[in-house]
Amino acid sequence: MERTFLMIKPDAVQRNLIGEIVGRFERKGFKLVGAKLMIISKNLAEKHYSEHEGKPFYNQLVRFITSGPVFAMVWEGEQVITAARKMMGKTNPLEAETGTIRGDFGVVTHRNIIHGSDSEESAKREIDLFFQENELHIYKKDVDNWLS
Ligand code: RTP
Ligand code: MG
């Protein structure tokens, strides 16, 4: 089963959007296999966004992502990498469709609410960067057994 790395960025944590965002992925039908609130070190931020090193927005991006707690998550499901990117919407919230996370809650590109892996390679790389193996959980969901 495919896994992706999603991260609720500092702006969304400050704006009390963790529950709203987690709820969307739960309702969609994906499974949360790991999650933690964390403050990212500059070193980890630079590794995570290394593909953007040297770009005009790179320094601002690293400053922003380290500016407060983020909520890091690993989600599992069929084609979850592509599906999550669709649910997030385009990078610039102005271009993101209404109904997407960035389209509904974001205003500007440099505070765009959520990160999501953009390929299988990035997902693997980012999951390894942020989570230890023992922080990821394999379990079955069976609602009926938990009602009474
Ligand atoms: P992310 O990596 O955060 O999920 O976002 P993304 O794939 O949609 O966009 P990406 O091209 O990877 O850019 C990473 C983050 O850098 C900021 N950015 N600013 N000013 C700009 O032109 C610009 N372009 C990108 C955004 O915050 C974006 O999420
Ligand atoms: Mg990206």
From TrEMBL:
It is found in: Cytoplasm. It catalyses: a ribonucleoside 5'-diphosphate + ATP = a ribonucleoside 5'-triphosphate + ADP; a 2'-deoxyribonucleoside 5'-diphosphate + ATP = a 2'-deoxyribonucleoside 5'-triphosphate + ADP. It comes from the Bacteria. It is an enzyme of class 2 (transferase). Its EC number is 2.7.4.6. The modification Phosphoserine is found at S122. The active site is at H115 (pros-phosphohistidine intermediate). Coiled coil: none annotated. Homotetramer. This is Nucleoside diphosphate kinase. It comes from Gracilibacillus xinjiangensis.
